[in-house]
Amino acid sequence: MPVVLGMEGSANKLGVGIVRDGVVLSNPRRTYITPPGQGFLPRDTARHHRKHILAVLKESLQEANLQPSDIDCIAFTKGPGMGAPLAAVAVVARTLAQLWNRPMVAVNHCVGHIEMGRLVTGAGNPTVLYVSGGNTQVISYLERRYRIFGETIDIAVGNCLDRFARVLKISNDPSPGYNIEQMAKRGKKLLELPYTVKGMDVSFSGILSYIEDATPTMLAAGECTAEDLCFSLQETVFAMLVEVTERAMAHCSSQEVMIVGGVACESHIAPSSFTRDVGKCIIVHINMIPLYPSSTFSGKSIHTPPKYSYFDAI
After folding, report:
1. What's the Rg (C-alpha) of the chain?
2. What's this model's pTM, rounded to 2 decimal places?
3. Closest CA relative to residue 269, chosen from 252, 292, 245, 249
4. What residues have CB less than 8 Å from 306, skipping those under 6 apart?
5. Which residues neighbour 58 within 8 Å (Cβ) at sequence distance 6 or greater?
6. SS3 of 294, please?
7. Burial readout 80-90 (b: 16 or more C-beta within 10 A, e: otherwise)
8. 231: helix, coil or strand?
């Protein structure tokens, strides 16, 4: 039963986890949180990671009740991600591997999300909707390779939500997307926004530009509330994602869909969103990454009854 210590720091979240034979023994994290209206810069994020990584490492070993001699392998995020934060964590990983005389494993960030999701939820071979601040892809595993069936052609959905949060000066604690979701729950009015699906790909730059320009005018005129804007943006971008994911499921004859990535934390992108009529239930696996350091992974597997959808007419 190998014991693997993994280090992740591809963006503003820093984590050091320990896994033994598929069981997560520890997973402490630190998040670099900037003031409302601001994003996080690579240089400042890397400085945050360098400041906290040794404390998080110590906490991870203590939580797992292990010593360095118990570690069999060191894994780290190779990319994709932000260069400076990735390098800061990789230097520590390489140093530990040399000090402890342990092998290293470089992990692809995207594959890590998928495999972590499969581990936590128990999914078999699902169609994957990978949604985060830096990536938006619809993926399936065929013939020993991960195949990308669709993706964003410009910015990621998480980046779209984060940048809109800056327009409204929404807090970044614990994350902009989470706070947008809370405001969206109080929204009453669905506004018509650009809906851009091109085949199996999606585009979020147009809807972001539109809502950034329209927000000050609409709020000043009293045409809607900030909550209405959050509700409308969330509904529109999630509908786009569900459409292309369902199409990929139809192509793969898949009964399972797994949602991974930071945006999977948002409960609104939920099983009820998937409406493909396949004659039996769709199994939706959601790998909800914990937002707070004290929380744990909460992978969910939910059977969703079939509903009428546009697939019935195809």
Report:
1. 20
2. 0.86
3. 245
4. 275, 276, 277, 278, 279, 280, 281, 282
5. none
6. coil
7. ebbebbbebbb
8. helix
Give the model's pLDDT for residue 270.
57
DSSP 38-97: ----HHHHHHHHHHHHHHHHHHHHHHHT--GGG--EEEEEEESS-HHHHHHHHHHHHHHH
Residue 12 token pair:
């503003």
Measured CA to CA, the distance from residue 111 to residue 290 in angstroms comes to: 19
**Low-confidence stretches of the chain (pLDDT beneath 70):** 267-314
pLDDT at res. 256: 86
- The single residue listed with the structure tokens 């990621």 is 156
Q: What is the largest CA-CA distance in the chain?
A: 65
Among all chains, which residue has been given the structure tokens 């039963």?
1
Assess contact for 297 and 289: CB atoms under 8 A. Answer: yes
Q: What is the per-residue pLDDT for 120? A: 82
**Who's near 293: CB < 8 A, 6+ residues apart?**
28, 29, 30, 31
Cα–Cα distance between 55 and 75 in angstroms, integer?
18
